[in-house]
Structure formats: C-alpha cells, structure tokens
Amino acid sequence: MELKGKVCVVTGASSGIGRRAAIDLAARGATVCGVARRAERLESVISGLSGDGHSMVPADVTKKTQVTAMASHVKEVHGRCDILVNSAGIGGAGTFDGRAAVGRTEEVMKTNFFGALYCTAELMPLLEAAAPCSVVNIASIAGRLALRGSSAYAASKFALVGWSEALHFELAERGVFVSLVEPGPLPTEGFPMTGLVKDPLMRRVLTSDEKVSSAILDAVARRKMQRVVPRWYYLLSIARVLVPPVYRFAQGPLATVRKHRVPEDG
Predict the structure, then answer these.
(1) What is the DSSP code (8-state) at residue 245?
(2) Which of 135, 214, 235, 247 could make an S-S bridge to 240, C-beta 3.0–4.6 Å?
(3) For residue 156, what is the domain's CATH number?
(4) pLDDT tens-digit series, residues 244-253
C-alpha cells in the first residue's frame, strides 16, 4: 500500500504497537507525527523513521489541553491528517476490590477509551478535510471477551469497541472510515510473557507488534470495521454467542494468560 503524501498521526508511538505502526507507515511513504508521553523514547523512534518530514509531540492523551495542542501542531506543521492510529494504552490487571478499584478503573478508562475519544475529536476537522481518511483504534480481544481479573481493562476495551463500531457506521458517509484492530495476547516490553513464549503450546495464542501493524495497514487499505489478530480469535467471539458453555470453559486457559500480565501494558 503506497502512502506517499499521506499524514499519519500515531499515538503511543514510543513503543510496542504504536512504534511498529509508525515504522511501517513511514516505510510506505507516509509522513508520521508520533505522539507519546516519553519524549526521549519518542524522539528515538521518529529520528529513525525512513523518509523525512516526520514530527513528534510529547503528550499525554488523557489530558485534553495536551491533545488540543497536539492537534494544533498537526495542523500547523502538516496541514492535514489522513490516518489516525489510536494506539496509546495501559493495562489494568487486578480483581475488583470495591473502592480501591475505582481509581484504577478511572485511570485505565482515561487512557484506553477517553484518550482515543479526545484525539479523534480534536483531529476530526483535519480528518474530514482529508476525506476519504481512516481512524484505526487499537482495542483488544478483551473488548469482546471479558476475563476475570481484568474488569477495568475489559471495561475500557468494551467501551472502545462499542464506540468505534457506532462511529464506523456514523462517519462513513462523511468519508471517515473507523476501524478496530483487536489483538490477542501480545508480549511487550512491560508485559514479556516469558513463560508463554517458551511454552510450545501456549505461545500459539500470542501475536506480535509486526502482525498487529500489518493488520492496521490491512484495515486502512480495505476500510474494514474489524480486524482480529490472530484471525482464529474470531472463533472465540462466535463461541461466546452461539455456545456459551465453551466461552465459560475458556475462562480457565485464558485466565492463565492473564496471570503473566503486569499492571502496565505500555
């Protein structure tokens, strides 16, 4: 897919899926504006991208004023926005323990859901002006399948999935195509899943930054509403609806995956 002349804003670009997406978009000719909280890490990523004209904005997507400043930067420096990848996110493992869980849930919702909401809203004028354009929201299989021990994370991803699907139908007539990319378990810097990676059977449930980035490009090219990585995870969603006992049975093995998580996904 050729993206020469296109401007792509990628949040969470300092590491993980966001970093890989920025690299792959730039490799296809796009001009990338990377957004992340960690300025030094972000600068390292942006300076290493192929091509020129790229920029960066150190920003926290949970802060409205910083997101507004980011959108102003994109308008002033690039003058357009053809693709927005909302990749910034954090983990939220932990059982619901009453009042103590409220703050954790609010924090996760602010990044994983409201961060995407704020960025999309602030960049909407530029997106519409560049239509046809794309917004890709990085959700999770946890936005379809709620697992014990992940109520905050599941809530944030279920919210992102519902909001994104509604926008897909609502904004398409205005030339803004909203897509969801839903990865399965993914080893990251803060979430290495060492045990699963070494297990010859369980490592088959894992995906990678490269595969998720490829799914992002596919979603943009085909204007797809949903793209699951790996694809066979679709079967779990179907089982949840058609064969509930299978879904309930899967809670055991999938909960084993959750045990390898740390509080921050990055």
Answers:
(1) H
(2) 247
(3) 3.40.50.720
(4) 776 666 666 5
